[in-house]
């Protein structure tokens, strides 16, 4: 897939922007705060229905405006597609494909991107919620219908937590809550599907992560991934975003294949086990909303043991592996690889290795404050950004350090 043209209206600091993009590498250069990241953020939103920088849509709409519009003209195998999204401040967002209305959650069917940014260091060093969002975004990119499953699970979770809070306020025991069992079954049904899909994606992703890590870092270290499930924990009493509230699914070097029925049974058993604790705390203590992805390097947890360079390499490997996985099973071509202000964080050796890793993708978008940070092989089409204004150039732009 290639993005041929990107158009923004009242998105972030852009009142209006029109930029033509080319196959291969496209480099956006400009001093910090000029709007480089805003451009690639808009494309990332079309593919994932979220921003890598903020948790709500409101910050994406230019100050003083009621709506923002993102339009992208896509091309795949000679066929063109116009994708449009309107972000509204006080009403539901709207989307179109070739001028025909669709539900916004259907957009990822048409747009595929993998974005790596400095914030992604949190995949290694941050909280479990960051790693859960990473897995779910990848799952949604491969199967957009799962975005609906995630939304349904969140709604059920909120309803169940509200019921537990009400019961605590009224002094009711969980066994006397006639509707709790109904919410339990719905939670198990949706949660088991999410856990099953996450286990499958972790197993598929791991060999790509190993290859990508060794390619970027140039070392023989062994990265590994492992799902940590709260439904298997003996005492899942930790706070919502605390580390390792569950139990690993890996036994030594093997990972047992847990079927969906087994997961559902374990989920029901876990709910029974924590029923009293949930009543006391008025919160759902087990389920995919409390799971984690354990990242290890040579058998040790990357969080806490990996150096800064190793952590960067691991985070980058996760994103490169995602791109390879999407490329392997895509019917619409390669995902657009987006590298947002990444090269400044890497040493010269890793910069070169990263350039080699992405050079064969159909399209790569890069942002940088300093031109020299980016390997020359990725600077063929350079666009200069100044205060929300785009200046295109077919030659290498001057250094804007």
Automatic annotation (TrEMBL):
HAMAP family: RecF (MF_00365)
SUPFAM superfamilies according to UniProt: P-loop containing nucleoside triphosphate hydrolases
Region (Disordered) location: 238-257
Residues that hold ATP according to the record: 30-37
GO BP terms: DNA replication; DNA synthesis involved in DNA repair; double-strand break repair; SOS response
GO molecular function annotations of the record: ATP binding; single-stranded DNA binding
Similarity comment: family membership: Belongs to the RecF family.
Keyword GTP-binding: no
GO CC annotation terms, alphabetical: cytoplasm
Protein name: DNA replication and repair protein RecF
Keywords for this protein: ATP-binding, Cytoplasm, DNA damage, DNA repair, DNA replication, DNA-binding, Nucleotide-binding, SOS response
Organism: Herbiconiux oxytropis
Main subcellular location: cytoplasm
PROSITE patterns: RECF_1, RECF_2
Residues in RecF/RecN/SMC N-terminal domain copies: 3-376
InterPro entries with a match to the protein in the record: DNA-binding_RecF, DNA-binding_RecF_CS, P-loop_NTPase, RecF/RecN/SMC_N, RecF_2
């Amino acid at each position: 897939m290639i993005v041929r043209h990107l158009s923004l209206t009242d998105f972030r600091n852009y009142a209006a922007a029109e930029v033509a993009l080319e196959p291969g590498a496209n480099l956006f250069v400009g001093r910090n705060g000029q709007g480089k990241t805003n451009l690639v953020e808009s494309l990332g939103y079309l593919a994932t229905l979220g921003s890598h920088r903020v948790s709500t849509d409101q910050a994406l709409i230019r100050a003083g405006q009621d709506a923002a519009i993102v339009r992208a003209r896509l091309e795949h195998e000679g066929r063109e597609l116009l994708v449009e999204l309107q972000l509204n401040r006080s009403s539901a967002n709207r989307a179109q494909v070739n001028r025909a209305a669709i539900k916004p959650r259907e957009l990822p069917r048409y747009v595929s991107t993998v974005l790596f940014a400095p914030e992604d260091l949190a995949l290694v060093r941050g909280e479990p919620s960051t790693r859960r969002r990473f897995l779910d975004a990848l799952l949604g990119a491969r199967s957009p219908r799962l975005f609906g499953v995630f939304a349904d699970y969140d709604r059920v979770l909120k309803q169940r937590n509200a019921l537990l809070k009400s019961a605590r306020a009224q002094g009711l025991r969980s066994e006397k809550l006639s509707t709790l069992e109904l919410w339990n079954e719905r939670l198990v049904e949706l949660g088991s599907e999410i856990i099953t899909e996450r286990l499958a994606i972790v197993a598929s992703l791991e060999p790509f992560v190993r290859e990508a890590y060794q390619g970027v870092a140039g070392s023989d270290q062994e990265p590994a991934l492992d799902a940590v499930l709260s439904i298997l924990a003996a005492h899942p009493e930790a706070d919502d975003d605390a580390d390792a509230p569950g139990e690993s699914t890996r036994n030594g070097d093997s990972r047992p294949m847990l079927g969906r029925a087994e997961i559902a049974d374990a989920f029901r058993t876990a709910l029974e086990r924590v029923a009293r604790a949930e009543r006391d705390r008025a919160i759902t203590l087990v389920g995919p909303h409390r799971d984690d992805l354990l990242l290890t390097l040579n058998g040790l947890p990357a969080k806490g043991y990996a150096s800064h360079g190793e952590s960067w390499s691991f985070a980058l490997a996760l994103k490169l592996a995602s791109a390879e996985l999407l490329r392997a099973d895509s019917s619409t071509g390669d995902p657009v690889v987006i590298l947002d202000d990444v090269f400044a964080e890497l040493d010269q050796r890793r910069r070169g290795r990263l350039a080699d890793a992405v050079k064969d993708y159909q399209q790569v978008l890069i942002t940088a404050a300093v031109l020299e940070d980016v390997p020359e092989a990725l600077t063929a089409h350079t666009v200069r950004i100044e205060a929300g204004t785009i200046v295109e150039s077919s030659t290498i732009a001057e250094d804007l350090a």
